[in-house]
Amino acid sequence: MTKMKSQSESPALVVSHVANFYRRYPGELVTFYTRVDVQQPLTGLTVRITLPGGLVPGASRALAGPHALGGDGAALLEVEPDVGISYFVWQAGGKLPAGTRCEYRVEARVAPTREDVTLESRAVVTSEGVQIEAEETVAIAVSAKGRYINYLPTLYQEDEMMGRFLMLFESFWAPIEGQINHLPFYFDPQMTPPDFLPWLASWLDLALDEHWPEERRRRLICSVASLYRKRGTKRGLQEYLEIYTGEKVEITEHRADNLRLNSGAKLGSGIALGTNNVPHSFTVILRLPPISSSGGKRERARQELERRRRIEAIIEAEKPAHTSYNLHLEIDPALGTHETR
């Protein structure tokens, strides 16, 4: 957690310090990422990232912010040989307005160790103008031997060379183990990787349209079982169109109007009871935002036509076969713009 020391209630500095791995073996690389957000105007800034003795310093760079302007963003490296602690220091003078963001990256390699250790890296940020300090610490767990050695007899567990040798196999198999451990997420439409969405949809006999935005494809897979139960109904078609468009859909079924049962009523093929009605038909009304396109009016018109065709394809697939329909699309600028793919 970030520790703040400030005279004001609202923090002037917020620092985030994270690592790309929190469990490493000797010889492996770890990268630290630090972000500093200036929330109040400040004068001068000093960023100090500390590496313990168990981490051998590597490359460093300021990714964004005043330190990266006009130079390569390199840091000043300070080392205390007696304790083996290293410091990466960036300094920026001048006034820093509120909203300034600085980002840094530091690489390090885990030094050899005979015992399991926990190494802590700390990021400390101070300002020259006022007495303000913010800091955050991140811990890396270092294992001296691979986990696989725990499955061998005690004789092998006492062999340091064997413990380091098994690290090679563990690093090869770790990605596959991660996939197996997270296997349930592959069956969750909200969590599965985008490339797995068509495969997951095939389990439900659903062909996904690759032109649909990812979020709507995920929502369709989540709702497809319910939509199948409602297929051919007004409610089912309405829900399907709302998933695709992201807007409310109005569907009006044209039933008999001015129903009468008297001497003037006639029955026969293609005749419905009543007047001014079209049996087995409905109207779909959609109010959609305009499409945002940088290709000019012609490209925008093409995308509008393509969107209409996709909506018509959904209606044709979901409506009862014996029915007909009218589609009314209303472009409403008040709804914002719609990005297409």
List keywords for this structure.
single chain; alpha+beta; Immunoglobulin-like; 4-stranded antiparallel sheet; 26% helix
**Tell me about the biggest sheet?**
7 strands, mixed
Task: Quickly name the level 1 CATH class of the largest domain.
Answer: Mainly Beta
Query: How much helix is in the residues?
Result: 25-40%
CATH topology of the largest domain: Immunoglobulin-like
Following the backbone from N to C, one meets helices and strands in this order, namely EEEEEEEEEEEHHHHHHEEEHEE
Instruction: Look at the helices and sheets and give the structural class.
Output: alpha+beta
CATH homology superfamily name of the largest domain: ntegrin, alpha v. Chain A, domain 4
Strand content: 25-35%
Tally of individual helices: 7
Shape: elongated
Number of strands: 16
Q: State the CATH architecture of the largest domain.
A: Sandwich
What gyration radius follows from the Cα positions, in whole Å? 32 Å
The whole-number mean of residue pLDDT values reads: 82
Distance between the termini: 40 Å
**Sequence stretches where pLDDT stays below 50 over 5 or more residues:** 1-8
Number of domains: 3
Give the helix/strand layout:
Elements: E1 3-5, E2 13-19, E3 23-24, E4 29-38, E5 42-51, E6 55-64, E7 76-80, E8 85-96, E9 101-110, E10 117-127, E11 132-142, H1 154-157, H2 160-181, H3 183-186, H4 197-202, H5 214-229, H6 234-245, E12 249-254, E13 281-288, E14 291-292, H7 296-318, E15 324-331, E16 338-339
Parallel strand pairs: 3-11, 13-15, 14-16
Antiparallel strand pairs: 1-11, 2-4, 4-9, 5-8, 5-10, 6-9, 7-8, 10-11, 12-13
Helix pairs in contact: 5-6, 6-7
